[in-house]
Design a protein that fits this description.
By secondary structure, this protein is α+β, with helices and mostly antiparallel strands. It has a domain of 161 residues: Porin (Beta Barrel). Helices cover 16% and strands 64% of the residues. It contains one helix and eight strands, in the order αββββββββ. An eight-stranded antiparallel β-barrel has the order 1-2-3-4-5-6-7-8. A hairpin with a 6-residue loop joins strand 3 and strand 4. The longest helix is centred in the N-terminal third of the chain and has 43 residues. The protein starts with a helix and ends in a 12-residue tail after the last strand. Its main location: membrane. This is Bll6524 protein.
Amino acid sequence: MLISGRDSEFERKSKKGDETMRKFSTAAIGFVALSMAAPAMAADMAVKAPPPAPVVAVYNWSGFYIGANGGWGQSHGCVDFVTPAGTVAGGCADRSGGLAGGQIGYRWQTNQFVLGLEAQGDWAEIKNTRVSLIDPLISTTGKTDAIGLFTAQLGWAWNASLFYVKGGAAVTRNRFDIFNNVTGVGLASAGHTRWGGALGVGWEYGFAPNWSAGIEYDHLWMGRDNFGFAGVVTPGGLTLTGSGISQDVDMVTLRLNYRFGGFGAPVAARY
C-alpha cells in the first residue's frame, strides 16, 4: 500500500510537469507565429503620402510702372565758331555732373520675353567752362540741364530678374555762354533744345511683388546744333557771327520702380 501511494504521487507530479510543458510549447509557438505575421501586417498598413513639391513662384513684369532714378552723366561736345572769314574750330571738351529724375512706362510679358514703352525725364547738372582756343581772352561755358528719353524696350526675364535693351529718341536742353576772361562780362548766350537718338541696356530685379530696382546705361547721339550771334567781337578783335555744337551724352543711372496691378505675393509652398 505504501508503494502504491508513492506511485500515485509520482504520477500526479509527472502529469503536472507534462501540462506545464504543453502550456510553454503553446506560448512559444504563438509568439513565433505572431512574429512572422507582424511584417505582413505592417506591409498591409497604409503609407502616408509624400508631401507635394513646393509651387515655384513666377514673377510677372506686365503692367504700368512709375519710378525714380539718379546717377551720373557725361557730355562730349565740340564747338565751331562762325566768323565773316569762315568757320573756325573752337575745340572739344568733356563735361560731367549729376542726374536725377523719374520714368513711367508699360511692359507686356509673354513667356520669357518682355516688351515695353517708357518715357524718362531727368534734371541734369552737366557743365564745363574752358578757355577758348581761338581767343585766350574769352572762355565758353557749356551746360546741359535737362534730358528726356522716349524709348522702346526688349527684355528677357528669368523669374524676378530682367535684362533688357532699349532704343528710341532723346532730347537735351543746353545753354552756351561766352564771356570775357578779364572783366567777367558775358559776350553772348544761347539756349537751345536738340533732338537725337538713344540706345541703352539695363538690368532690373524684382525684390517684392510690385517693387523692382536696377541699373541702366544709355548713350545719346545728339548730332550738331547751329545758332547765330549778333556780331560779337572778342577782346582779341575776332568777330563771331554764330556757332555750331555737336554733342554725345553717356548716362549711368540707378532706378527704383513701382508696378501697378493685381499681382499678389509669390505662391508659398504648402504641405
